[in-house]
Give the backbone structure.
Amino acid sequence: MYTKFYGLTKKPFALTPDPSTVFMSETHQEGLAILRYGILSNKCFLLLTAEVGSGKTTLLQALVASIEEDVHLCMLNNPILSRDEFFSYLAARLGLKWDGNKAMFLIDFDRLLQECYAKGERILLIFDEAQVLPVDLLEEIRLLSNLEEQGQDVLSIFFVGQPELNDRLNDERLLPLRQRMASAFISSASRWKRPANIFSSACATPAHAISTFSPARPLPRSTRSARARHG
């Protein structure tokens, strides 16, 4: 109703962030550049940590929106999974089979790595909220990278999460994983500014829709009801 009444191309406000309408600070632009560099430069492991509400997920959405077709993406937003659930999800996202046999999955995954290398394609695994990943699953993820042959550099794995992720990685059992982190970016406390998001949303709408409110122009019924309830 609002989009039609005001002549907007889409709803300007939503509970979930829209990467196409978010104004990114210099810090977030740097973070996005590092993530893109991690793909282009064939970096295997990248780490991005920041406080809650700092825009990590929106940053990932912006990255995903810019990914080329030659990148096979598997993004896990809720990594609270058992070992079998993880391999089942990974197989489904990459077009592989999972029947509970890890050995057969690794053979198929290794074959996929070789095919991607021959075609000049890449595989990108992204783990959002990675601070909840258990140690044993983090180790399973690291071992996947061992399948790459010398010089292949097909697989990139990004861990994104809250600062607790740094504490998790300090576990002595994860020393081999820490040693292979090609780059680490620890975000500052800068956050997505709501006014900047609103401004950017407004700029994404037709110019004629951005005008000063006039009492002569009636509001949609639900908006009038909201004003009445709040005085």
Remarks:
- The CA atoms of residues 141 and 197 lie 35 Å apart.
- The longest strand covers residues 155-161.
- The first helix runs from residue 2 to 6.
